[in-house]
Amino acid sequence: MKxxxxxxxxxxxxxxxSGGPPPPDxxxxxADLVARYQKHALRGENTLAERYFQQAVAATGGAGRVRExxxxxxxxxxxxxxxxxxxxxxxxxxxxxxxxxxxxEDAAYFRFVTLRWQDLDPSLxxxxxxxxxxxEAARRHEALAAIDHPLARLLDAxxxxxxxxxxxxxxxxxxxxxxxxxxxxxxxxxxxxxQAQAASRGDHATEARLARRIRLVEENIAASP
Length: 225
Fold this sequence. Notes:
This protein is mainly α. A two-stranded antiparallel sheet has the order 1-2. A hairpin with a 2-residue loop joins β1 (2-6) and β2 (9-15). α2 runs antiparallel to α3 (66-82). It has one domain (2-220). The protein has helices at 25-42, 46-62, 66-82, 90-96, 104-113, 127-134, 140-145, 150-162, 168-180, 184-200, 204-220; strands at residues 2-6, 9-15. The chain contains eleven helices and two strands, in the order ββααααααααααα. Helices cover 64% and strands 5% of the residues.
């Protein structure tokens, strides 16, 4: 069985192939729960999101699965970094360090989301992230715009911003990616970044337009605990 892609991120599970015995409950439960975590985290529904994540960890941890539990934490870290939360992925790193033979693809993905790109082999990354890593810095926005998976695109935009490589076009692309998918948490963050840029260049009309969008999102986003 091959790993399931949960939204944009590589994960713990093997998607079931045709034939063969069905996967154990801990696998299907953890895949479903971490997908729910991502859905609600991106919507800004933090209490519900964390409840699903802890249930996913309980499913893999209760089965004594260190590698799969580490991957859950890696997915959580990547999800948070897609929302421009500077998560260090410490929980993943701690669990992965206990493995006798760490997974090379997981380790590469960890380096990718934590911006340790030097000498990173793009072929070890999920397909949707490879072109960004291979592109020269000046061409990375083009690679970003060509990503067809919205959450992978949002993650990569956030990573470029964290690296100081995101211009106005990247911010705009990230904003509209979040908006078109109803991802209120990153949408609010990116709208505020665009508003700050508009203010800095004295573009008061754009600043006012973005302020209206921000108010609309803030009125509807679930309150964080």
